[in-house]
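tokens incoming
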């Protein structure tokens, strides 16, 4: 199972890029998973549903399953390694991870403003940089080292770079 991270500061477009890459690789026939880091105390369950009521009643873990879908709710945090290990049993070709900047996996870094550039110095494993800001591309090329710099909306080039750099290959038959 291959892993690529999409990292950047808040509101830099991480989710949008992750969705575009997932859509592209899934359309090509790859089995793709997704993990998202949330820095806030989110509530993934809708108030009033049975699973929400079970959690509010005190269940530390709850699951809802149908013939086509399963959702787990746990009242605890989880590290990226644990989540990837859990996904390992799902026979995925690729997991697109949003966030977890400090983890050691290959990364596509999003830099949208001049003041975001120092992020590149904090990251290990940057395989590509993407920006909405055409004026920053030249400076980013000097700052990003060997990582190519792409326009944020150039999904084809970003996906091709990810494929090459993580060794994704061709979709299984």
């Amino acid at each position: 199972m291959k892993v690529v991270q999409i990292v950047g500061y808040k509101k830099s477009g991480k989710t949008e890029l992750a969705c575009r890459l997932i859509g592209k690789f899934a359309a090509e026939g790859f089995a793709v998973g997704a993990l998202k880091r949330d820095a806030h105390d989110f509530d993934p369950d809708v108030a009033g549903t049975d699973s929400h009521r079970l959690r509010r009643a005190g269940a530390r873990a709850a699951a809802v399953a149908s013939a086509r879908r399963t959702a787990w709710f746990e009242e605890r945090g989880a590290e990226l390694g644990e989540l990837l290990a859990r996904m390992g049993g799902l026979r995925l070709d690729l997991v697109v991870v949003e966030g977890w900047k400090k983890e050691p996996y290959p990364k596509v870094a999003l830099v949208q403003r001049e003041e975001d550039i120092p992020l590149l110095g904090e990251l290990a494993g940057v395989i590509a940089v993407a920006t909405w800001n055409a004026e920053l591309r030249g400076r980013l090329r000097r700052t990003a080292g060997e990582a190519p710099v792409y326009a944020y909306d150039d999904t084809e080039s970003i996906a091709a770079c990810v494929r090459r750099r993580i060794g994704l290959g061709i979709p299984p038959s």
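note: Helices lie at 14-27, 50-56, 80-88, 119-122, 137-143, 155-166.
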